[in-house]
Amino acid sequence: MRKSKILQLNNAFIQSERAKSQNKLAERQQKNRFMAAILVLVIFLFMLPAYNLVVTYTTIQQQEKKLAELEKNYDELTKEQKQVAEMVTKLKNEDYAAKYVRAKYQYSKEGEFVYNIPGLPK
């Protein structure tokens, strides 16, 4: 190995300059850590509302689906209620009620025979 021909001076000025550069480096690292901590805090502060926004959006979507389903059920029940109301008014007529009972429950009068014919609606 060859010995280096460069001679380093190690006097008070060089040592003080080295100490200054090390201090500047330490300060820069401390500033970088502080800025990184602030950056992490800012990211966290933006993530929390974003998460709440997503949760709220999904909740609203679920409630809209439930609302659509309930409206559909309401329409079906309204239609069924109208049919029942029509049937009630029809059944108040004695002739219709007699025909309905005979057809639906195969009720017959005394001495009368009922024959079921396949394929005919009841």
Percentage of residues in strands = under 5%
Indicate the overall shape.
rod-shaped
**Helix and strand sequence:** HH
Q: What's the oligomerization state? A: single chain
Question: What gap, in angstroms, lies between the N and C termini?
Answer: 114 Å
Sheet with the most strands?
none
Counting H and I runs of at least 4 residues, what is the number of helices? 2
* Unreliable stretches covering 5 or more consecutive residues: none
Secondary structure: helix percent:
over 70%
Using only C-alpha atoms, the radius of gyration works out to 46 Å
Q: Would you count the extended β strands for me? A: 0
Structural class: mainly alpha
- Output mean pLDDT: 89
Count of all domains = 1
Pfam families: DivIC
Transmembrane segments: 34-54
Keywords: Coiled coil, Membrane, Transmembrane, Transmembrane helix
Coiled coil: 53-94
Write the layout of secondary structure elements.
Blueprint: H1 12-91, H2 94-105
Coiled coil: 53-94
Protein name: Septum formation initiator family protein
Transmembrane segments: 34-54
Describe this structure in words.
By secondary structure, the protein is an all-alpha fold. The chain has one domain (13-105). It has 2 helices and no strands. The chain is rod-shaped. The termini are far apart. This is Septum formation initiator family protein. One of its GO terms (biological process) is cell division. Pfam families: DivIC (PF04977). The chain crosses the membrane at residues 34-54.
Descriptors:
about 120 residues, mainly alpha, 2 helices
Care to give the gist of this entry?
The chain is rod-shaped. The protein has 2 helices and no strands.
